[in-house]
Amino acid sequence: MLQQHPDIVAPPEPWLMLALEAFGTVDHRHPAGASLIQDATSDFSGRIDRTIVSRAFADAAYGQYLAAAGKRTFVDKTPRYWMVLDFLDSLYPEAPHILLLRNPYAVAASLKSTWGIPLVPESWPPASLSDLSNLMLILPPDIASSLADLVLGLPALAAHRSRRQTQVVRYELLVAGPDEEIRRVIAGLGYDPTGITSATMEQPEYLRSSRFGDRKILERKAVDDRSVYTWQTELSIQEMQAITDAIGAELLIELGYEQELRSFSKLGSWTEVGP
Question: Could you tell me the residue range of the domain that residue 230 belongs to?
Fold first, then answer.
């Protein structure tokens, strides 16, 4: 929707800044020796200003992509950037951030239906969810990372709301009034939103050929709110309780999802399924 504007391009999930932040870290099977590479690059990086170098690389990469696309603003949509928020701020302290908040129960339902992520407590003991390294040891990496996005990423992003250059967009408001919301975001990026409509979504070829992003969007030609309430039928009481315990009722309420929390409580006995 953002790249309906003639000056904006938004390719599917570049993950570029995650790779830059992890510079010097390679697979343990690297023939040169993973520990040697990490130690050597760390020693070398200690003699230079790594922030300047990383910024120069990112500028060159984004700039080349923009030049090829004939655009002026690059939107890097990578949800897992919650892991490197401080790194992003060190490289681009004045860059606008767009924080898209969505009902955590709906996010969990999407993880389950789209990626097959198990949400039952037996699969991920709640005690392990406070630490990403524990998750990686206990669960397969793809499952651990997806659960971390929800359970650890959500509070990290929630704390980011107070950042001066952060625009908060609520998913539920976006699908209910896409034209108004997308114009507000584009205006926040410093562009004239006049003439921008989001009734239809153009599907660029590079989105179809990419391995990243939610493939369900390829089936959509217009914005709709069908996904707002599917969590109520997609999730079992046990799964809803697991998500509530992992995220915490306090954060749900703080983010404005008290009504959803109450809706969950009405699906069963509050005394039986939770505090």
Answer: 77-273
Residue 48 belongs to some domain of the structure: no
The string of pLDDT tens digits covering residues 58-86 is 999 999 999 999 999 999 999 999 999 99
Say if CB 96 and CB 189 are below 8 A apart: yes
Q: What is the pTM of this model?
A: 0.86
Please write the tens of the pLDDT for every residue from 210-228: 778 666 676 777 788 888 9
Q: Is residue 36 part of a domain?
A: no
Dig out the tokens for 31 from the structure.
């023939």
**Number of independent structural domains in the chain:** 1
Extract the tokens encoding 165: 């250059």
